Amino acid sequence: MEKGLEFFDAWVKSQKEFLETWLKSQKEFMTNWTESIQKLQASFLNLEGFKEGPGKEMLNLFNSWFNTMANSARVFSDEVVKIQETSKGAFEKQMEMSRDMVKNFTELFKQAGEKK
Predict the structure, then answer these.
(1) CA-to-CA distance for 48 and 44, rounded, in angstroms?
(2) Sign (positive/negative) of CA torsion 80, 78, 31, 41?
(3) What is the pLDDT of residues 35-72, one digit of tens each?
(4) 8 Å CB contact between 26 and 34
């Protein structure tokens, strides 16, 4: 039965590593996406047609829209990270409880086997 506990521990460890990797990749994606849009925005600022007239007005509207979207994305990303951290903690607690149950059943079956 020790092999069963070793397998269970290895499975829990792999699931925990998966969640951590996934969480990190999601956070990096949102950061990279925001940075790339800001670079795109900066490149438009350097174009001649966008410094005066209707181009400038359009750029101001785009800047306002982009800033709103970037801030919303940042808030959303931060909240998703918090939810994922909470889920990760709950998952770890659940796996620890499951490990204890497996251990208790193992002991129970071992005792039952010795009585025969």
Answers:
(1) 9
(2) positive
(3) 887 787 777 666 666 666 776 777 778 778 888 887 88
(4) no
